[in-house]
């Protein structure tokens, strides 16, 4: 897809990822990687006694899964040399993701700016939880794509 083709779709949903299970093994691995071993994430027996009724994923784990979801749902720009996260203008964790739940990402293109050798895109992203009335998170996510030299 070209940046012109994508720019014509500003305000539209561009993609929806597949459902992805969030397993306790993923949660435990994330806890090990980040050093965040709060019981609500890693101790099923103690977490079962809370209002969540079991362990929940770290909000930042849910956030980190956006890259894989975007890879499924968002078409790559032609002549891409490199794509990077540029940051977030807005991020809210709305609902907890319980261990064993399935999530998916919904991507709406909010803005596209062309530079000389890059394209900056802002996405309104919602991470939905299967069979849940409210999403896990809402964010405005900014990515920058660096383009190859073309003739």
TrEMBL record:
Query: Which EC number(s) does the record attach to this protein?
Result: 4.2.1.104
Q: What is the main EC category here?
A: lyase
Which InterPro entries does its entry note? HotDog_dom_sf, MaoC-like_dom, NodN-like
MF terms in GO: cyanate hydratase activity
Q: Where is the MaoC-like domain?
A: 7-126
**Keyword field:** Lyase
The organism's place on the tree of life at top rank: Bacteria
Identification of the protein by name: Nodulation protein N
Organism per entry:
Profundibacterium mesophilum KAUST100406-0324
């Amino acid at each position: 897809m070209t940046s012109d083709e994508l720019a014509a779709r500003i305000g539209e949903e561009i993609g929806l990822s597949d459902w992805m299970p969030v397993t306790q093994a993923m949660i435990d691995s994330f806890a090990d990687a980040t050093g965040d071993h709060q019981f609500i994430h890693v101790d099923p027996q103690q977490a079962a006694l809370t209002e969540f009724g079991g362990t929940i994923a770290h909000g930042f784990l849910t956030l980190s899964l956006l890259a894989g979801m975007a890879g499924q749902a968002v078409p790559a720009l032609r002549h891409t040399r490199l794509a990077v996260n540029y940051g977030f203008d807005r991020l809210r964790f709305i609902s907890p993701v319980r261990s064993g739940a399935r999530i998916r990402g919904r991507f709406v293109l909010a803005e596209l700016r062309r530079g000389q050798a890059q394209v900056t895109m802002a996405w309104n992203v919602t991470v939905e939880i299967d069979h849940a009335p409210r999403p896990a998170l809402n964010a405005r996510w900014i990515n920058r794509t660096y383009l190859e030299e073309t003739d």
